[in-house]
Amino acid sequence: MSIAEAGEFGLIARIVARLETGTASLLGPGDDAAVVAAPDRRVVASTDILVDGRHFRRDWSSASDVGHRAAAANLADIAAMGAAPTALLVALCMPADLDPAWAEELAGGLSAEAGLVGAGVVGGDMSSSPTLTVAVTALGDLDGRQPVVRSGARPGDVLALAGRTGHAAAGYTILSRGFRTPKLLVEAHRRPEVPYAAGPAAARAGATSMIDISDGLLQDLGHIAAASAVGIDVDRGAFEIPAQMRDAASALGVDPYAWLLAGGDDHALAATFPAGTALPPGWRTIGRVHEGAGVTVDGRAWQGDKGWDHFR
Amino acid sequence: MSIAEAGEFGLIARIVARLETGTASLLGPGDDAAVVAAPDRRVVASTDILVDGRHFRRDWSSASDVGHRAAAANLADIAAMGAAPTALLVALCMPADLDPAWAEELAGGLSAEAGLVGAGVVGGDMSSSPTLTVAVTALGDLDGRQPVVRSGARPGDVLALAGRTGHAAAGYTILSRGFRTPKLLVEAHRRPEVPYAAGPAAARAGATSMIDISDGLLQDLGHIAAASAVGIDVDRGAFEIPAQMRDAASALGVDPYAWLLAGGDDHALAATFPAGTALPPGWRTIGRVHEGAGVTVDGRAWQGDKGWDHFR
Lengths: 312, 312
Fold this sequence. Notes:
Chains A, B: Mg(2+) 4 binds at residues 32, 46, 77. Chains A, B: It is an enzyme of class 2 (transferase). 2 copies of one chain form a homodimer. The first copy, chain A, is α+β, with helices and mostly antiparallel strands and 312 residues long. Chain A has helices at 3-6, 8-16, 63-79, 100-115, 167-176, 183-190, 198-204, 217-228, 243-252, 256-262; strands spanning 25-27, 34-37, 42-51, 84-94, 120-128, 133-141, 158-162, 209-213, 231-234, 268-273, 283-290, 294-297. Chain A has 2 domains: 3-141, CATH 3.30.1330.10; 158-297, Phosphoribosyl-aminoimidazole Synthetase, Chain A, domain 2. In chain A, helix 2 packs parallel to helix 4 and helix 5 (167-176) crosses helix 6. Chain A starts with a helix and ends in a 15-residue tail after the last strand. Strand 2 (34-37) of chain A pairs antiparallel with strand 3 of chain B.
């Protein structure tokens, strides 16, 4: 059966049946709009797009994988402000000949990833389109904290990382060369493992700036450096290369540091903290902030790609 | 110049320069997420998609028109809950060869329409895609009121309408037959005139149910009838046919009531009120709610199309 045969309202009912709306949902799908609790009197909101053939491939990722990734990319943005995600809204553009089961499995993946942080899918919209596209908006709550923005890094701060980098990029390279293993890396491309709790924990510990690493560590740190008018130096020695990544890099003729320092889509969080801060669990020091501009690695300009441009 | 040549970050800067972020924006574009005031401790949220070639045509509508329409479709959903819109987030998928000026003008249209209700564009995402797509998420504030949902209509209630129906559908038919006039109808397709203030006003006046008429009056009233487990009868005599619509219908061989009762995209608001309610300004009675099921016109089943299915 195709979506055209199932009909719009039939498909909506099948999708909504797959969703958990979460504890913050006061009114879920089915009306003109959803209503979500915002106890802090401020709501944090972010939107991220995944396009078929560009951000994912249906022969590499299941519908559920795509749902997990689409949710993770947005939930990570909320966490990177130091907020706790509360809800997702999903804009889903689908070819009319798509199997409705694909859309249902996508919804299941979105809902399951949101459920990791107690959030739910509260609404959205569907349309037919030649290009399968998933645009998700995430909402979150600051629980009385100030948002941790990109502009607060100060010379002397330590640079810290929560979560992993390079894994999703390695998985993408592996898949694009026609391989299916190692599982660790391929799965990281399909479903990022995002350290959601590390975001609010960093905010509570006094992080001066924070960002979700979606386009590559060096490129995303460049946004902090520019917004804060500081220089940032990354200590390459702080990155251990997992054995499976070292083997894959060697077999494929890739510099593993290009994955670790410039690979996107793992949705690690990078933050700066005043020197001497006891880092919360899950955070490790990977560099420092200094007077100046730009991002360096071991004091030198990085020679490889810095990361992803969505129109390149 | 194409978007690919302008580069992602250059284009973001050009677009952000066109945006007003509105009074509720506490942190606008440029960070991982926006922060929007939610004084009510609840946030109303809705998402709507416009796809090139399906919801708009670039030879019929300017980029600014598309921006106005994309914003209006979402702001109307917020108003239909009885809430005041506060902010928009925009997911924009664009072919890499699109002229960046188109995206800038779109942003200007989105921002201008949001400005009509004091809301602003606070964030979003961009991606390249073969299919030009605008997915907007709107947020709003209830100011202490209960949301007006679809399920509250009761037998004996009066059915009322704010805003116009049939105009956008007539404009669409006119354009699709190769004509460009009458302006009133063609412009209604390009830029709906939404009675935003009528939503919160209806809530304050005690509306028992409300809906944004996006897919056609009869189809959308069907959602209220089903959710409320009531029947709704529409009084056809309550609809005046504007002279320009009558002339266009006659010239094109169309029943003007098909436009008025089943045409979408004007984003009028329909609501039910307890009998005897003094309707707020802008609202007029167009029918009544009774025990039963379904939607009738002058007591009989409507023979024409009821409205729009996005996968038909």
